[in-house]
Amino acid sequence: MVLLIERDGPVAVVTLNRPEAMNALSRELRAAIARAFKELDHDESVRAIVLTGAGKAFTAGLDLKELASGGRVVEDANPTDHDRDPVRALTKCRKPIIGAINGAAITGGFEIALACDILYASTNARFADTHARVGILPGWGLSQKLSRLVGIHRAKEISLSGNFIDAETARDWGLVNRVFEPAELLPAAIKLAQDIATVPADKVEAYKRLIDDGFGMKFEKALKYETKFTASLNAAVTADSIAEARETVMARGRKQK
Asked: Which of 38, 86, 98, 164 could covalently link to 33 via disulfide, CB atoms 3.0 to 4.6 Å apart?
């Protein structure tokens, strides 16, 4: 199977499983990713998702061997078939997705990583955008997302050179949240997913949407959007529910000291 899905309570762990090909995104794997995330999105027992790769790579991006043997560039790089668009499926998923980047995330694999909500990286992780070197320009959002995350000058350094950046540089530039030793990566990602799963699911879904929608707006418009978006939700909150939540939050805070 090119994609594995395991469950750890309310957490689903999705593993790209073509280690012999650096988890390259064949048509079969892209379709499997799109299908899996649609199904997980509709599975109410799943509260958070961890995405990682088998073997030494996260994913090397589009399967260039497959593409060179008769693939259609536009269909593969700029998909209009939503059933085979893995980035769209991740982006549309209402559940938080933690990318556990265990190794190389290259070009299309970089784009898959950027579609996650939170990125944890192994010290073995490396990121590269080789679109221009291959002769294909990005169609899954990398050219716009990367500059917003690391700044326009750093984005140009990465994308125009095709050079790799290591995990520590990615963390320092704001591309990934944290860096772990390889054996600690997946447990840490699952632990974070379990923590998120203890928050009310409707609030997590609403907050994720609020952040994502606002991120694409100018600041003043985003502030107005937040007020409008949250007004009706906050109006439904009662004093009793606040009191109950306060005790839970305080108890959890004491444990985390």
From this structure: 86
Confidence check: pLDDT of 25 > 90 = yes
pTM above 0.85, yes or no: yes
Alpha carbons 91 and 88: distance in angstroms, whole number: 5
211 and 114 belong to one structural domain: no
Domain containing residue 223: 201-255
Cα Rg, the chain, nearest whole Å:
19
Mean pLDDT throughout 177-194? Answer: 98
> Are both 193 and 206 inside the same structural domain?
no
Q: Is there a single domain that holds both residue 61 and residue 173?
A: yes
Task: At 136, list the tokens.
Answer: 């294909």
Tell me, yes or no, whether 61 and 176 share the same domain. yes
Q: What is the pLDDT of residue 204?
A: 97
Domain termination site, one of 152, 178, 197: 197
What is the rounded distance in angstroms from the CA atom of residue 98 to the CA atom of residue 91?
12
- Residue type for position 12: A
Band of residue 124 on the pLDDT scale cut at 50, 70, 90: very high
